[in-house]
Design brief:
This protein is 69% helix and 2% strand. With 334 residues, it is mainly α. Strands 1-2 form a two-stranded antiparallel ribbon. The protein is elongated.
């Protein structure tokens, strides 16, 4: 998460939070953590990938749409080609001018935003982070070159500047907005997720199933009264709640798995766009995106399992415990 300023606009704190009580009576809360711990010294660090994905291609189009078509229309191109200068040098000069106008501000802005965050010491950047951030800047330089070449190509094939600008605008909208949106739409259509109402109905069905398997569940007496019969009713209630929580957890994990799979499918479809491809490469370079979200959820589930096992061992070693683990009022004094 230290490199979120490179790919995700500079979150001010850790990337996510899973709040999970050991008790099956408490549903887990999975959300993005916001305004918890300020990590970055400036309010909105430069979003490098926003600049690379959207600003660079738009700027390249605006700078290069009339580089060739405008010269052709004004007659300057004929005059330039009448000199003893190879054509490739003419195009190379135009390319270099546009590329420097794009790459220089990107490099300076990226280095300044990274340097300011690192200088305060609030974010513990490592040498590996510096290397990954440098690779993203190199990726930005490559993107600037690619979009510049596209702009010069369209400008060379167009008869006038207006047609060149229209074609580049259409390409920008398609690459930056159209293809990713189409990928998301096709992913949703190919594997539609259950609606919130359907999810609630499925959870209610699971609750009814558990109630039918454990008749009489739901009774919770005071500990001193329940101890007379060895917590018999509470044992049934605890088993029912544990079973219900396991079924709910299975349902939630299945839904999360489908959501991640759907997001991956949408990303694969959108890779036809160079803009989406740049985002994918940058996320893989810095370890962000869907891979990080999936790893984070796996770590959260693993941590919860370790914590539950630790509490279970403490309870087992307490002879005074009723061994109704994780239920308030029936926990071991340990």
């Amino acid at each position: 998460w230290r490199l979120t300023l490179v790919v995700e606009g500079g979150q001010q704190d850790a990337p996510g939070l899973v709040r999970q009580a050991p008790s099956p009576l408490v549903n887990p809360e999975i959300r993005r953590a916001r305004a918890v711990v300020d990590l970055f010294p400036i309010r909105e660090p430069l979003d490098w990938m926003f600049v690379i994905r959207l600003v660079l291609p738009l700027a390249a189009a605006l700078l290069g749409y009339d580089m060739v078509s405008g010269d052709r229309r004004s007659g300057t191109l004929k005059l330039t080609l009448s000199y003893s200068v190879p054509r490739w040098q003419v195009l190379a000069g135009k390319f270099t001018a546009i590329w420097l106008l794009l790459a220089t501000p990107l490099a300076l802005g990226g280095l300044i935003s990274f340097g300011v965050s690192a200088a305060t010491g609030s974010v513990p950047f490592t040498c590996e982070d510096l290397g990954k951030a440098s690779l993203v800047l190199v990726l930005g330089g490559w993107a600037a070159a690619y979009f510049t070449l596209v702009a010069l190509l369209v400008s060379s094939l167009s008869r006038d500047a207006a047609a060149s600008l229209s074609m580049l605008a259409w390409l920008w909208v398609s690459a930056a907005l159209g293809v990713p949106a189409l990928g998301n739409l096709l992913a949703h259509l190919s594997d539609p997720l259950p609606t919130e109402r359907e999810t609630v109905q499925e959870l209610a069905r699971l609750d009814h199933l558990v109630s039918s398997q454990f008749p009489g569940e739901g009774t919770w007496r005071q500990s001193q009264w329940a101890a007379a019969d060895g917590f018999a009713l509470e044992q049934i209630s605890a088993q029912a709640e544990i079973r219900r929580a396991a079924l709910h957890e299975e349902q939630r994990r299945a839904l999360l798995t489908r959501k991640l799979a759907q997001a991956r499918f949408a990303r694969r479809l959108s890779l036809a766009s160079p803009v989406a491809l740049l985002q994918e490469v940058a996320e893989r370079l810095v370890g962000a995106g869907l891979d990080r979200d999936q790893n984070f959820l796996a770590q959260a589930h693993a941590f919860r399992a370790v914590l539950s096992a630790h509490l279970h061992d403490l309870d087992v070693r307490d002879p005074q415990s009723p061994h109704l683990e994780f239920f308030s009022g029936y926990l071991s004094r340990r």
